[in-house]
Amino acid sequence: MDHPVYHGNINRETGEKLLSKSGKDGSYLIRDSESRPGVYCLCVLYQGLVYTYRVSRTAQSSWTVETAPGVTKRLFRKVKNLISAYQKEDQGLAVALQYPVINQKGNQSLLHQYE
């Protein structure tokens, strides 16, 4: 998938800088997890802090996000569906996804197979 918010193999600090630069609550991007190969991080800016949620594939090839405790686990066939769902309020994230931080460098190839 050529998803515009996927930034590939950037570290946490770089992701946080990109989000802070936007300065808007609800700004978000996806990057590779530094600690878990094959897992991604959905990073969201809210009140000056960056919240990070793990995004991974299930054995059935669905996508899921690690959200707040007590929130029902949801499965999505495509990453774009996952993003659409979390653009709504009260879905288990600190804030709804509102402002995509677009990858200007084109490091989107790892998610290409999951369109």
Model description:
The structure is a single chain. This protein is of the alpha+beta class. The protein has a single domain (12-114), classed as SH2 domain (SHC Adaptor Protein). It is built from 2 helices and 5 strands. It has a 5-stranded mixed β-sheet with strand order 4-3-2-1-5. The longest helix has 11 residues, at 12-22. Residues 108-115 have low confidence and may be disordered.
Could you write a compact summary of the structure shown?
The chain is α+β, with helices and mostly antiparallel strands. It is built from two helices and five strands. The chain has a single domain, classed as 2-Layer Sandwich (SHC Adaptor Protein).
Query: End-to-end span in angstroms?
Result: 4 Å
The rough form would be described as globular
- Which blocks of ≥5 consecutive residues have pLDDT under 50? 108-115
Number of helices: 2
Total domains: 1
Protein name: SH2 domain-containing protein 1A-like protein
InterPro entries: SH2 (IPR000980), SH2_dom_sf (IPR036860)
Keywords: Adaptive immunity, Immunity, Innate immunity, SH2 domain
Domain SH2: 5-101
Write the layout of secondary structure elements.
Layout lengths: L11 H11 L4 E6 L7 E7 L2 E9 L5 E3 L13 H7 L13 E2 L15
Parallel strand pairs: 1-5
Antiparallel strand pairs: 1-2, 2-3, 3-4
GO biological process, one term: regulation of immune response
Organism: Callorhinchus milii (Ghost shark)
Protein name: SH2 domain-containing protein 1A-like protein
Features:
16% helix, alpha+beta, SH2, SH2 domain, 5-stranded mixed sheet, 115 residues, disordered C terminus, innate immunity, SH2 domain-containing protein 1A-like protein, single chain, SHC Adaptor Protein
